[in-house]
Design brief:
- With about 90 residues, the chain is mainly α.
- It has a domain at about 50-85.
- It has helices spanning about 5-15, 25-40, 55-65, 70-85.
- The protein is extended.
Length: about 90
């Protein structure tokens, strides 16, 4: 098994210290969040975007560091930007 990165180790330490507690009705909570995910998935829309090569290369590098895809990284960054502007 590969060694844990810093974020994974911090999460494991937190769990081992007892900082996490289960909700009273796990099954209901799982179903609730599955429903949220399903609704969200059904509301996603596709966009097309043109970027300078340097920007795309930088995004690819960031995505690789984050262990995700460029599209997920872009969606996350845009979502954070939009929600920060709404507050």
């Amino acid at each position: 098994m590969p060694p844990l990165d810093a974020a994974e180790q911090a999460l494991l330490d937190s769990v081992e210290l007892g900082e996490w507690q289960s909700v009273p009705d796990v099954t209901t909570e799982i179903e609730r969040y599955q429903h949220y995910a399903q609704v969200q998935e059904n509301t996603l829309e596709s966009v097309s975007l043109e970027l300078p090569s340097q920007d795309l290369q930088a995004l690819q590098a960031f995505a690789q560091q984050a262990g995700t895809s460029v599209s997920v990284l872009m969606a996350t960054v845009l979502h954070q930007f939009i929600t920060s502007r709404q507050e």
